[in-house]
Write a structure and sequence with these properties.
- The chain contains six helices and no strands.
- It is mostly helical.
- The chain has one domain (about 1-100).
- Keywords: Membrane, Transmembrane, Transmembrane helix.
Length: about 130
């Protein structure tokens, strides 16, 4: 996803610049920005780091790096929408972490809601059927 976000940010910033020199500087800055984040993510994919981290934490670290890269790219390009995407990704990290930890609890809560709705519907049908 990192190269995709890098291309999107570069394309978004391209149209905002007027001269070829500004565009060249932006390309260099964006390339260095995204290569640095790719290298950091690659470091966490290395075998040595995976042995140190909890398997649940690795995707969350990757998402945190992607959020940070997107936010920084938005700041460099002065595009608030890209900053907002980075912020949303950043705040999604704890939500995903919580969901991974509590998936069985969410399944149980969903089943209870479905059961309560089915029971309510069944009782309503029986009351309508009585003369």
């Amino acid at each position: 996803m990192t190269p995709v976000f890098g291309v999107i940010c570069t394309v978004a910033g391209w149209g905002r610049l007027e001269t070829g020199e500004q565009r060249r500087q932006m390309l260099v800055t964006q390339a260095l920005n995204w290569v640095a984040f790719l290298l950091a993510i690659t470091l966490f994919f290395s075998y040595g780091m995976q042995a140190l981290l909890n398997p649940i934490a690795i995707p969350l670290v990757m998402l945190t790096f992607l959020a940070l890269g997107t936010f920084v790219a938005g700041l460099e390009l002065r595009i608030w929408r890209i900053c907002a995407v980075g912020g949303v990704l950043f705040f999604a990290v704890p939500v995903f972490g919580w969901l991974k930890q509590s998936a069985p609890l969410l399944v149980l809560a969903t089943l209870l809601v479905v059961l309560a709705g089915g029971l309510t519907w069944f009782i309503g049908q029986r009351r309508e059927a009585r003369p």
